[in-house]
Give the backbone structure.
Amino acid sequence: MDERRHSRPLGGWLAVVALAAASLAVKLWLALHTFGTNDVVYWQEFLATMREVGGTGVYRQIDWFNHPPFMLHALDAMDQLAHATGLPFPFWLRLPAILADAATVAAVAGLITRLPPEWRVDRPRAALAILAAAPVLMAVSGFHGNTDPAMIFFVVLAVYLLDGLGMPLLAGLAFGMALNVKVVPLIFVPTLFLYLPSMWRRLQFFAAAGTVILAGSLPYVREDPQVIARNVLGYGSFYGYWGLARILSTTAPNSWLNQAFESKGRVLALALVALAGLAMNVRARRAPLFLQCGLVAFLFLAISPGFGIQYLAWLAPWVVGYGLHAALAYHATAGLFALEVYTYWSKGFPWYFADAREFVPEWWSPPIVAAELLCWAAVVGILCVMVGRVMLPRPAPRLSVQAVPAPAGS
């Protein structure tokens, strides 16, 4: 009896490890045997431009190069590794995301085991197993060729170091690295600031993050900070391919509402995540940071007017904290959507080169639009579940106290 009780948790963790290892192998195979999407072509163009005119020149010549300056150093390292090993550049471009996925599973495992009893959900290891084998991450990390999974790993690591281990300085270093990869983690700043319990911890966290960003941005940020800020902070992604933007641009393309959402939708999304951070942290019983950041990520992507298929990686880790059903709903719809898109862009299966540029202005077919809207509806539904859990938590479990018999003769 005792042996069975102790073997079940161990068996659950072994299953997660086995699935993560199998997923890692599939992603490595894809990275070695495919080219990826046209984003890989763009990264090669960035590299060629950097070799010709220098790192800051990339921002001047390619106004849609929206990556932080640290990625120029990373790009140079990938190119040198490709020449030193003989393995192709597209493999090295995708390897950080592949390794980040495995590390994300480990960090999420640490976070869900540290959730207080009133915030735990049923079958968390099953939800973690879904993350370990997530088809959407196999497609985005193993095939696509961009930095989103690496970026979200550093955010999860920061949350783990901050809320799981109580290390604000190290957490700030991790968060700074996330911002060195992409600026998207800025959506978490209001929640992180309000969650930290004192100004001293806030100073430690954000000073560490700023130091890492500055160190990673040199020397380029010193040469032309204005053009770098314009490119990195001004990028708005592609409108009309996701959720509300899809609905408005399809049903009322010339309406003031559609035009307003296209021009101001990002401001609306940023304002809502800031308000969400405030609402979650003025409460006496606050949700753990892992759950709060999950709500922020889902809220931002649910409202965001811009979209790229690789953005689906932003949500993958957080849904684990909300249980098996939420994880199934997200990963089933996101996996279906991503697999259909990459197959369509690749003009069939198996994949080798998925060139979305051939399908402009409509990136995907009407059946894939249905998969897109289904995925967005799942995101909105899960967001509603998240709001209910974070704002209306279950009461803390009471400790059971055995009755003590009264002394004889009382």
In short: The chain is about 70% helix and 0% strand.
